[in-house]
Amino acid sequence: MSVRLTEGAVEALFKGVEVNNPMLQLLSIRQIGAPSASPRFRLMMSDGQHSLSSVILATQLNYLIEQNLLVPNCVCLLKKIIINTLADGRHVVIVMDLEILQSAEETGGKIGNPTPCSADGKNSSPKKVSSSTSVSASPPSAAVPGTSYSSSNTAFSASGGRGRGFTGKAPVNASPMKASPMKASPMKASPMKASPMKASPMKASPMKTSPMKASPMKASPMKASPMKASPMKASPMKASPMKASPMKASPMKANSASPAKAMSIANLNPYQSKWTIRARVTNKSNIRTWSNSRGEGKLFSFEIVDESGEIKITAFNNEVDKFFSLVEQGKVYYISKATLKAANKQYTTLKHEYEMTLHANSSIVPCDDIQGVPTLNCDFVPIAELENRDKDAIIDLIGVCKSAEDVSRITTKSSREVSKRELSLIDTTGKVVTVTLWGDEAEKFDSSGQPVVAIKGARLSDFGGRSLSALFSSTVMVNPDIPEAFRLRAWYDKEGYALDSQSLTETRSSVSGSRMNWKMLSDVKSESMGHGEKADYFSCIATVVYIRKENCLYQACPSADCNKKVIDQQNGLYRCEKCNRDFPNFKYRLLLSANLADFGDNQWVTCFQETAEVLLGHSAEALGQLRDTDEDAFDEVFQKATFRTHIFKNRAKLETYNDECRVKVTVLEVLPVNHREYSRRLLSNIHKLAS
Amino acid sequence: MAGILDVPKPRINCSMLSQHINRAVCFVGRVEKVHPTGKTFSVSDGEGNNATVELNEPLEEELSGIVEVIGMVSNKGAIMATTYDVLREDKGTPFDLELYNEAVKLIHDFPQHYPFEVAASG
């Protein structure tokens, strides 16, 4: 270390003061910028007292690093430098010419104990060291007008953004982030990957999360890479004209309207004010109006995708009018100046952290250069795997529509009428699942020709085992233009159509099986079922042990829907109190009192008409006749019904009858025992008990 | 024949054959191949393993589907059948051999709950 470093130089440079030929030691080198474009190197220089990391090497000097002439710990003389000032006052030093005075080996190690010079942390994630500055050596820096984010602010924010992104999460980091952005900022112009950035995030642990973000970000910025790359030297190109002027101060004005550079969706965050993205609209919703206590309004939303990811955009009230007709699904647009905020996961199925809201200044411009923008980002799940996914998960699915029910109209709980349609989709796993479409999509759907249907963002439910329901935000595509669709089509035509596959959505009868609340009869007492405010519903497998023959039938009012017992007036007329009428006839209705038993306990239950008829195997009318005509046959019906085992779906409720409280159990449904399902359930219960 | 009917005949699958050599067993499986002589045929169990069944008299007609064989396990691991019964496939719920296999494994996993005892004949 025989060389003396110019002490105080770093501090001066940091303040933007020009220093003549300072002698500094190189501490570290970081490469920034797109790997495809020529690299830019960011240096951390020290004067023994302080270190400065906002130093960029002009590209014409890149060879020094590439040929390993410039290595950490060597001492250099900066012969020509340019200092750029960013909008927020920070400075970046661009080294135009330097001479290596002492090699790293000769120097030995770090000279002195330099402290970082930035106001705060500096380092930590220099993040975007990138760009701009380098841009053709002329410091356009800040500006880098990249259009999208030209302003240094943006740049700053971009980098900061990234950092900030994290910061958002860990306020503590705030400062470090700032620090880095400082250095970084000049570079904005070309969001370069800047590996250094990656490294840095590591420094500040709270930012752990960031690295992840960081990387995608790094990666993404390049999306518009063709353009970006150039900025660096070579083509100050697009930017250049602009660049020239901007230099310092955030010229940014540019942006919008001339998106030479587009940011990547994955990088979007609220801390970045100027950006432009280029993406395709994948899913546009209809206009929805709402009216609640706070007022009313309308909105529509759409999702966009680019190579880096997807994000949801919502427009309210005035913006709906402005943009609804402009935005078309499937087209690519440049979008800028919208508000970013944390995504409300309740309303979106996308994985982006943030979502966008358009405001009066937002701009959406159709884009012709659609190269590179993906059509749709779909992560299709094979139908056979649906069983392994959780209920209520949001899934993308693609399959051939084997069959479709007709459109049916349903009245929902909120008394709205909706159309619905169920389709059966089959895919290469050979499994079939039912998908429900609602509203317009249900009506528009054309199932002829067994089309390939792709659905994005459908909700998986355990209704009937496994089934899918299209949400308001789902996208349904018929015969989409994607490779999976062609593969499915080919498979289906060859073999799929013949497959008699197993549906994951069972038909009604066995539906109950998957959602039943299985209990044993002894549970009714041990769990005090029915004692709560609400009735308890449960299912059980039990054997009919006894059915009361007496008083099993009663005479009921013959008018439809009235089941009230009629009073025999003895004059051939029967009076119904509810209808307030006399009738010459009546209808027989069953009201059975039966005793059910299983291995542990027995239980008296009541069966009304429908369930009673199933148990006995005869209609109430027929039994009524039988009782009057053939007593033995009547008895035999009951005999045959006894000691049969069924699945019972019951309701238990505590009822008060003349000062007496009793738990009454009513049978809601009687089903035949599905032995296979029962066996499987028993086996799984045994295994659970055994483990 | 009388002898074997008095004795408990545990239900087994192929993997348990070796533990039941020289013992009476009950084996349920799907008929795979019938030997041309008709005196022996192979069956597969719920796990897919095969076993051989040997008969005293040759089969009179083609055998297919799921059968229940009662007999003794020979030293070589074949079942010397004393009687067999074909489970009808055209009526009722189809027999689920895999599920049956699970049940058989369960029986042997919990002998304390599924004891094989000679009933005290009264």
TrEMBL record, chain A:
Pfam families: Rep-A_N, Rep_fac-A_C, REPA_OB_2, tRNA_anti-codon. Residues 5-102 form the Replication factor-A protein 1 N-terminal domain. GO terms for cellular component: PML body. Residues 537-682 form the Replication factor A C-terminal domain. Residues 275-356 form the OB domain. It is found in: Nucleus, PML body. GO terms for biological process: DNA recombination; DNA repair; DNA replication. Residues 124-159 have a biased composition (Low complexity). Its main location: nucleus. Residues 383-479 form the Replication protein A OB domain. One of its GO terms (molecular function) is DNA binding. It comes from the Eukaryota. Residues 107-254 are annotated as: Disordered. Keywords: DNA replication, DNA-binding, Metal-binding, Nucleus, Zinc, Zinc-finger. Belongs to the replication factor A protein 1 family. Component of the heterotrimeric canonical replication protein A complex (RPA). As part of the heterotrimeric replication protein A complex (RPA/RP-A), binds and stabilizes single-stranded DNA intermediates, that form during DNA replication or upon DNA stress. It prevents their reannealing and in parallel, recruits and activates different proteins and complexes involved in DNA metabolism. Thereby, it plays an essential role both in DNA replication and the cellular response to DNA damage. This is Replication protein A subunit.
